[in-house]
Specification:
Elements: E1 2-9, H1 12-23, E2 31-36, E3 51-58, H2 61-75, E4 82-87, E5 91-97, H3 110-123, E6 132-137, H4 140-162, E7 166-167, H5 173-183, E8 189-194, E9 201-206
Parallel strand pairs: 5-6
Antiparallel strand pairs: 1-3, 2-3, 4-5, 7-9, 8-9
Amino acid sequence: MIREAIGVAETIELAKAEACKALGVDESQAEYEVLQLPEKKVLGLFGGKEAKVKAIFKETPLQAAQEYLENLIKAMGIEGAEVNMECGEDNVSFVVSGDDASALIGRRGETLDALQYLVSLVANHNDGEYYRVSIDIGGYREKRRETLVALGKKHAILAAKKGYRHSFEPMNPYERRIIHTAVQEVEGATSWSEGENFRRHVVIGPDQNSRRNFGRKGHRNDRGNQRRNTSFHSEPAEKREPKAVDDLSEKGVSLYGKVEF
């Protein structure tokens, strides 16, 4: 994106400063075109012209995304928030800090996910590179990941030991992948996803194909498949979804896929 502004002042340097002020950028970030040279007045009274300079700022998609996020936060009534951008080879992370920034997280990160989705659209609104975008506030993403891993392993152990089945609340693809990965570390348990669109959620249950099954006391029991809790009813094999990830986002792709315009 290219932005331009014209500055008018007594000297070229002052005109540059005025143009950059209008753009809201540092003078070192812009390119300049002198439209009019200054001319002194005759006898200090007649004629004369001020300098006129055009400043040109070529904004990258990531800079546009950061500015968009900053404007969104202000529009939501959050004052004094600071947005820092950390770029990788094909990813970018925006870290938001400030006294009231936690209000942007929302219930289980729903507001934060919505902001991340919108900013991702802006960052990738171009014909060139694609960036995986993430937004974090106060280390929320890591804390949420640790919570999901703990919950996934807890219910996987119960499924392996007692044949229980547990359904989680609907989650985004990234969070579902975290739980699937955690369950894979527990022998005797499996996980799959059910539901469509925003109702899609993870289900954890015993792995009936596992060679190892546990009795009520946690000891190995080779006849465990014949002694399952009667409250658990397995699904027909043809209806069961894969144990591993079930969509592109759960195979390592970012939270939101590339959007074509």
